[in-house]
Amino acid sequence: xxxxxxxxxxxxxxxxxxxxxxxxxxxxxxxxxxxxxxxxxxxxxxxxxxxxxxxxxxxxxxxxxxxxxxxxxxxxxxxxxxxxxxxxxxxxxxxxxxxxxxxxxxxxxxxxxxxxxxxxxxxxxxxxxxxxxxxxxxxxx
Length: 141
Hints:
Shape: flat
Number of strands: 0
Helix content: 55-70%
Structural class: mainly alpha
Keywords: Membrane, Receptor, Transmembrane, Transmembrane helix
Radius of gyration: 25 Å
InterPro entries: 7TM_GPCR_serpentine_rcpt_Sri
Organism: Caenorhabditis elegans
Pfam family, one: 7TM_GPCR_Sri
Protein name: G protein-coupled receptor
Strand content: under 5%
């Protein structure tokens, strides 16, 4: 219910923003628009990551569906991804963080010493490029 109300408020705020678009300067409009997008993603991302798994667990436990207990057992993984989703949404939607992230990524990539080795484009057999795997079982022979 809170998600529906939040979506409605975001939609209404977007309509008001578009109505006053011609009164605002272009810079102010862009800042408001990017702030609205950032806020919407920061709220909707964790809501999906927390809300859906908790609802699924509730339905599975309440209806006593034993065949879906494996699905309910994986729900804590998605719930624990909450902070990662929030941080990712913040980095991807805020221009300052996005620029900082991409600049640092480019700097780290330039400092890396490893280079790609050229590979042949035509192979006779995929088996020829496979490396033997180490044995996990000790045979003592």
